[in-house]
Amino acid sequence: MIYVATTNEHKVHEIMDILSDFNVELLKSPKKVDVEEDGKSFFENSVKKAYYYGMELNNPVICDDSGLVINALGGMPGVESARFMEGYSYEEKMKELLRRLQNFDDKSASFVCVATYFNPNSGVLISAQGIVNGTISDNIRGKFGFGYDPFFIPEGYDKTFGELGESVKRQISHRSGAFRKLFELLKKVGEI
Amino acid sequence: MIYVATTNEHKVHEIMDILSDFNVELLKSPKKVDVEEDGKSFFENSVKKAYYYGMELNNPVICDDSGLVINALGGMPGVESARFMEGYSYEEKMKELLRRLQNFDDKSASFVCVATYFNPNSGVLISAQGIVNGTISDNIRGKFGFGYDPFFIPEGYDKTFGELGESVKRQISHRSGAFRKLFELLKKVGEI
């Protein structure tokens, strides 16, 4: 059994859905562990969360750190994706980012996810990165997904993640890529 | 080819020696990358170093974060092992720790190492922990090794790492345990 170290219900369900092919029991963490996500990279924050949850729960855990990287804005909101304009809704955050982007021709962006597994008993930690490249849409569209999904158009599509819905997202998303890669690695090393 | 991300010559040679059975070319990093080792765990610091060296060198890297954990002193010097009493020699650091330990019956301690591999191209990061339990000697003995080796007696021995010499250390040390475990994992996942 592996705990999913997050208190974000959307994430927990998305992760369980992504990993449903793997024959592993996943449970939501029974408690919140305070971890200061002050790293400057997705790798640092993802590893910190996995480490402190694993040590506290004394059980293997998985978690991720994810975010949107907008190239014209110097990588913003990046590792600050969740904390950018804290207290505001994602609709307001997206409107503000669209406002800042309006004078740039370059609308390219990436969704990045670093998924991490930590087993405090074996002392093994593994991280895998998933990236989806795409562009920021001119407007906010679609009701599926969460966070910045409604204004991100993945490469090869003309709809936002908010319009494409869960089944497409499960196949091509950054989180899907990272967790599937991670679980393939875990199978190879015998941790699952 | 994998870079060893450290500027500590002792460590580079020890790591190359430990991994000489594996058929992998290891080279010392061609430059120093400034990484603030401000994490509160060996995992955090080891991952940070691997990540920033890997991104800067654009090549797979290995590194470690190691330290001495003295139980009676609340885990001191721990992640601060290298920075504890900065500017002083290890002989002076050991003398100070012996002074602080003199009123405790519990002389138990562990050497801990977290070895990390990061490949910026595949986005895969793997860490493995090695631990050697032992006791702090009443005095500083032996001329082999480096750092805190001359006052640490590993379990099952009556000599310090400073007296036991490189061949024993290569077999049983925390660094040896961590790097061998790491390279076994890397073989299994096909990164080496």
Helical content of chain A stands at: 25-40%
Q: What is the third-level CATH name, the topology of chain A?
A: Maf protein
- The CATH class assignment of chain A is Alpha Beta
Form type of chain A: globular
Question: What does this protein look like?
Answer:
The structure is a homodimer of 192-residue chains. The model of chain A has no long low-confidence stretch (mean pLDDT 95). In chain A, strands 1, 2, 3, 4, 5, 6 and 7 form a 7-stranded mixed beta sheet that branches. In chain A, helix 5 (166-172) packs across helix 6. Chain A has a single domain, classed as Maf protein. Chain A contains 6 helices and 7 strands, in the order E-H-E-H-E-E-H-E-E-E-H-H-H. In chain A, a hairpin with a 4-residue loop joins strand 5 (108-119) and strand 6 (124-136). With 192 residues, the first copy, chain A, is α/β, with parallel strands linked by helices. The radius of gyration of chain A is 17 Å and the shape is globular. The interface between A and B is medium-sized, with 23 and 23 residues. Chains A, B: Belongs to the HAM1 NTPase family.
